[in-house]
Amino acid sequence: ILRPIFDDKCKDTTIIDGASLITELSKYNKKGLLKPTILFCTFDIRNLYTMLPQEESLDILMAFLHAHGYRKVKGISIDTIKKLASIILKDNVFAYGKNIYKQTTGGAMGSSLTFTLANIFMSNWQKNIVEEQTNTGEFYGRYIDDIFMTWNRSEEELRKLLDDVNTWHPNIKLDYKIGNS
User: Which H or E run includes 47?
Assistant: First the structure.
């Protein structure tokens, strides 16, 4: 029930597939911003699903729903949604060998809730960089934990920004590549 809300509210920075990336880059090109000096940057968030801070993710979910005017979703109060999401995140156990483990950070891989929470968490995390990119007319797009952006300033400035971004959250670390093609 949360995924359609995320898809609707975050479509401006979300890449859904290769075709949507090409469409968005075509729009960027038509603005005349695709210059010979452009840098392209891709980055990957390391282990996003398993590194999501559980309580913070739930708080960000609530803030996201409040910010978009939701008090209920399909007749379910957002407090109930938070409680259910908490159960899914915090009561996740698995067996390995003869031992049973409880996951204390992140969520289950393959869980549709973990997918949606990760996207909502990242939409909150990326706000400053999206604002920076928007203010300078640059492209920014994210597909879950993979990000693509353009840059028309120096590579040194971009590296400084990305090194700074790597300090924004203790659980969110990125590996990046910069190139001109």
Answer: none
Q: Can you give the CATH number for the domain in which 24 is found?
A: 3.30.70
Residue 31 and residue 71: Cα distance in Å, rounded?
39
96 strand-pairing partners: 99
The secondary structure element, H or E, covering residue 175 is strand 174-179
Length, in residues, of the chain: 181
- For 90, the domain range is 3-179
How far is residue 8 from each of residues 14, 88, 147, measured CA to CA in Å? 10, 24, 19
Domains contained in the chain, number? 1
CA 18 to chain centre: 17
Strands 72-73 and 39-45, by their bridges, are unpaired
Give, for all 181 residues of the chain, the pLDDT tens digit: 999 999 999 999 999 999 999 999 999 999 998 889 999 999 999 999 999 999 999 999 999 999 999 999 999 999 999 999 999 999 989 899 999 999 999 999 889 999 999 999 999 999 999 999 999 999 999 999 999 999 999 999 999 999 999 999 999 999 999 999 8
CA distance 172 to 161: 15
Nearest Cα to 125, choosing from 43, 22, 180? 43
